[in-house]
């Protein structure tokens, strides 16, 4: 009888070690990022320059996210304050853990936007930023023009690939959230 208990204990110990090894490999394996998208060539267009503020853009973002939530694709929120803040939750084992990611936005010369990760809060757990970004990327369906890049700790927003009505295109000219100075150029194709 003692031999059976020893074998059962060794079998259970082996199973636990295998599970821990699998979890460690999954957590610490490198994350593959997609390359940054290339800007699409510009068509002949009429340009309209728009200056906005955080309050108005928060309303636009909220409306967009609410439409996506109605389709069942998203369960996160984005707010513009002195930084861009992304709120959501991720599944860890059988629990849902809330997180908050803070980003510093940067308008690129090609009109697209990079959100560089600046802060992270994940429940009471201190997880690597790349892990949380990867978990968010895998858990939610973001639009095609939003690329989450965990290794670089950033989100790339291809405004030139965003689908708007009447083939309208948008380019970010300036994003200074601390001064509440946000400027875009809207391009309406004439061809």
UniProtKB/TrEMBL annotation:
It comes from the Bacteria. Keywords: Membrane, Transmembrane, Transmembrane helix. The chain crosses the membrane at residues 7-28. Pfam families: DUF2140. This is YfaA.
């Amino acid at each position: 009888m003692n031999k059976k208990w020893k074998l059962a204990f060794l079998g259970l110990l082996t199973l636990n070690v295998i599970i821990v090894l699998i979890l460690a490999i999954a957590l610490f394996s490198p994350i593959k990022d997609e390359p940054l998208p290339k800007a699409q060539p510009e068509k002949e267009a009429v340009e309209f320059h728009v200056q906005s503020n955080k309050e108005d853009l928060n309303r636009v973002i909220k409306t967009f996210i609410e439409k996506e939530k109605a389709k069942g694709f998203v369960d996160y929120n984005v707010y513009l304050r002195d930084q861009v803040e992304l709120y959501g939750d991720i599944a860890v084992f059988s629990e849902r853990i809330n997180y908050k990611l803070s980003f510093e936005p940067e308008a690129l010369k090609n009109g697209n936007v990079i959100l560089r990760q600046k802060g992270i809060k994940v429940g009471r757990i201190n997880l690597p930023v790349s892990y949380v970004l990867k978990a968010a990327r895998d858990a939610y369906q973001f639009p095609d023009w939003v690329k989450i890049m965990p290794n670089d700790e950033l989100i790339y927003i291809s405004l030139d690939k965003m689908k708007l009505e009447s083939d309208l295109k948008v380019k970010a000219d300036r994003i200074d959230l601390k001064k509440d100075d946000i400027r875009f150029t809207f391009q309406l194709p004439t061809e």
